[in-house]
Amino acid sequence: MIARRHQDRRLLPGVTAGLALAACNGAAPRPRAGEDIYAGHPLIARNAGRWDGTYRFVRPNGELLEQYDFRIRVSLSRDNARAYRQESHYRWPDGRTRALVFEAAYVDGELRWDDGRIHGRLWQISDETAYLVFGFHAEPALRCHEMIQTPMAGQTRGRSWLWYRNDLLERYTLIDERRVADHAPLEYK
Predict the structure, then answer these.
(1) Is residue 48's pLDDT more than 60?
(2) Computed from CA positions of residues 58, 135, 45, 101, in that sequence, does the dihedral angle turn out positive or negative?
(3) Quick check: 141 and 12 in contact, CB under 8 A?
(4) pTM for the full model?
(5) In this predicted model, what pLDDT tens digit does every residue of 170-182 receive, in sequence order?
(6) What is the DSSP letter of 45?
(7) What is the β-pairing status of strands 110-114 and 118-124?
(8) Cβ atoms 143, 132 nearer than 8 A
(9) pLDDT at 15 over 80
(10) Domains of the chain by range and CATH?
(11) In the chain, N or C terminus with fewer CB closer than 10 Å?
(12) Residue 52 contacts residue 180 (beta carbons within 8 Å)
């Protein structure tokens, strides 16, 4: 079971994958040596394609801090060194836009990021749930824990982020997404 495989590895201070997996009801597939992301992470493979949605940043007391729309495209490769690529385009209500690209390698059954801006890892904990923990090189006191739920039909997904600064909960991010035609443009005009 993956929980046993990860239980002794520390993610961040005080948090192990075993603790994160303890709340999981479904058993995730166990990665095998030499497999690629399609075989090792069928949930992530199901998430390939185009997604549109909204980010909502909320204080622990429920106050809405910020909200903006996004469009992303997730592309996968059988080359484990470049297994995951996410092109993200964001648009704020005032018209501002921003584009970012996130790339990850597939190593030992996990996606791993470390691009000089962010570092983190993601693994599948059930047939419908992935868990990601990441941080920022420029802000070592800030870290984020993300759950990604994709129902089996694969047409919608929900994500929730818990942001901690110096081990204190600072905010949540609530994200609702829907799959759209992959040929639709990503850029906001």
Answers:
(1) yes
(2) positive
(3) no
(4) 0.79
(5) 999 999 999 998 7
(6) H
(7) antiparallel
(8) no
(9) no
(10) 42-180 (2.40.128.20)
(11) C
(12) yes
- The 10s digit of each residue's pLDDT in 105-122 is 999 889 999 999 999 999
Token pair 């964001």 is found at: 90
CA–CA dist 113, 28 (Å, integer): 21
CA 128 to CA 31: how far, in whole Å?
A: 16
The residue whose two tokens read 């949540």 is 172
- Asked if 107 and 114 count as a contact pair (C-beta separation under 8 A), the reply is no
- The closest of 143, 147, 80, 130 to 107, measured between CA atoms, is 80
Distance CA 20, CA 6 (A): 10
> What's residue 182's pLDDT?
78
Q: Identify the sign of the CA torsion 43, 82, 158, 123.
A: positive
Q: What does the alpha-carbon distance between residue 66 and residue 94 come to, in Å, rounded to a whole number?
A: 12
Q: Token digits for 169?
A: 């909960």
Reported as a single tens digit per residue, the pLDDT across 56-111 is: 999 999 999 999 999 999 999 999 999 999 999 999 999 999 999 999 999 988 99
Q: Sign of torsion, CA 125 108 120 102?
A: negative
DSSP 3-44: HHHHTTSEEETTEEHHHHHHT--SPPPPP-TT--HHHH-HHH
% of the chain beyond a pLDDT of 90: 71
